[in-house]
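Bit of a strange request maybe. I'm writing a small parser for structure token strings and I need a real example to test against, not something I typed by hand. Could someone generate the tokens for this chain?
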Amino acid sequence: MKRTSPLKSTRKNHIEKKYINNKNDLLVNLTLYSGVKAKLNFELWLNENPDNHYLACVLKVAKKYQKLKKTKSHDSLEAKFNQFQLYVNFCKGKSLNPFSEEAYKSYVGKNGELRRLEALAISPYPYIFMYQNNEQIGLSSSSCKLHKSGIVDILKKAGVYDYSFEYNVGEFSFDKKANAVRPYSDKELSTSIRRLQYFFYSLSSQLIAIKKAPNEANNATCLMATVDKTDQGILEFEVKSRITNAPKPSTISNGSPFNRAMQAGYYLFCYFTSFNESSIYDVCHPLEQVTLKKSQRTVKTITFKAWKSRASREVEGLVSDEYLTGDVEKKDGLKFLNTLIELSKLYNPNEKENNQPLIYFLDNSNKVRSPGQSIGYSYLSKELGLFSDDRGNIALHLAKLYMLLHDSNTELTYLLPNDRVVGRRVSIQEKVVHKSKLNEKMVYLGYSIFRCFTDENLKNAIRPLKYKNNQEDGFFEVQFSYNDNPKHICSIKFPNELRDFVEVYEKRLNTLIPVNPSKHHAKSKPIYPPYLFATSRRANTPQWEGIELTSHKYLQARGITNANYYLNLSSRRFRATTGSNYYSPTDGGYELSKHILNNTFNTLSDHYVNGNEAENKQILGQALEILTEVNKGNELPTAKELVKKKLKIDVLSYDEWKSKRLPPPNLNGIVCNGKPELDSTAKNQFNASLKFASILLNGISISCYQFDKCSHCKSAKIVNDVRFVYKTLSYIEALRERIDRKPLESEKYLAEANYLADMLEANVSEDVLNAAYEKLDSEGPSKLISDHFVDLYTGI
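Reply from user aminoacidic:
Good idea to test on real output. This should exercise your parser:
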């Protein structure tokens, strides 16, 4: 009998025949977490003349994908397919077999393609429009590491990966600065939470009422939503489902009132709990409500757990109606969560089943869907008018684009095409704009520039503009009124570099749509309002729907990402803000890591407590200015005042940062950890004093009741702050007044007063001490139990 080679089945002709007759083996259909269908075509991995080994590897991976799609995450399978596709494209350009060690090291090795892209991303430009045409933007170290992991996984599925591939390859570096998450500023946080709450409660109250109505006659596909209440009145807009010609049953309508309410609820949940995105999706009904007795007050809390998959452990959250010292805004957490729970239960068609998600979307067939990426890419920030504090930095770029369009009808677009090549290249294109679209594009640019310098509503703003020069600070002022509110005047300060733009912008609109009609016109009055942002050349030009005009898509084509203009809403940034606000240098962030963020300590230090980079730079810049003044011979207090005058600010950035993080003082202005470490002469009096103080203060919780024994306590600390020192000076005066009233105890009171006075002299700077004395002289002594103290400790 003739012997047959065991390699006969892998000959080229045989595999080609199998491949040609079984093309479906190279197609894998997936359904992603969001409900979107994805088709993976493994034929894209083949080159023009694949050899036997190459074909065998591709077929092997495709067959494994057919099996794995029954048990593994489809999103993960698609991500790794795309990562390997980018690697294959690189190999095709180098004529390399992607399933070989040579190709692997050429891509991920020390001198490989990923290392080159990593080097490009070490110091990226802050804006896309700063890149040159065809310039690559690079890949972060974490992206390179993730990309490599996906390639290794596919090579293992093909059966060709060996650990020897890693010889002399090395690990990708970890850049803490690149991985740090920027927290929100105080202004960004307060505005976003206020508007998210208005929006959420406005929609949810209507949705709940509709669902509870006997016949549900009202339509929940179109509702009016309130966004804010300002001096100009109530800001609101219509929320309605976007109906396509032939909507698929599985399609998620992001514009539906219910899904919009859930989006706002998701971000508020991020704020109140500091949970990660994946953990929030895993929070399910029922959520337990607990009533506790605390400090002679009844406190209601809702506790819940979620699974943190990457860490393989549970995380626990708690929302309370208790007022939190230093974070009063979160007192509404219980009300919010109760509303979210009710809304979630009412609209879930599977509400009676166990472990139903708290936050979800409804598709067009009313089925429950996970929000997935729909949350991250929603345009909620545009609809609510939420902006980045740094958007003024892009104004000059937008003005240059406007002048180019005005002078030559030419516009520049900045694109990052998804061309399946690693390290995308910026494509800058020029094109002439047709007259029919010219005014619309120019008004979009003009509106965006005006928006860079104001948070006020710009809808219905009308011309003419009134100019006020202010040469001292390098700015000029522009004022205008509104068609629907003529008495309200909006004032915007522009840098002098934009004077030409503002004048050209107004002059052009005056030519198209004059403020005053021509004397030869048949009618004495114009039949249209002279809108400042008129997107049409015709009379009776309407204003846009919603609050904001400029779209994300338009800005992206100008080289501006969402976070450069609109506020980037994300769970990571809410967590970073929590990390920044609650970080305590005394324990290095341990309590924050353990009890608030549910992170490992390393994750906390790498991502969440690096602070606000812009704020840190501002503090450093002001410090250098102060040092310069000190080097000129000025005293430190004088140097600080000179810098504040030069920068036209009332408070230095560091002083503002420090004041937000100072712990609450005791009644006498001294700070402690609430755990008295008294010497033997004072220990016996503590319990009696505690009991008396709790009665006196009617249950108000303070860090320590024995405020008359601070001189005997090791945990007591003097704070170099005017407000705190003023309270201590007031307390010293109260002690000295007691000397006359109780002569028998005068020695004790005098010793206490002198000790505290000496401590102030030794630990408080001269300027702070002088300011505290001035406050004492002008306002008189502070009450030991003042209204301010009661407010502070009850959260009012």
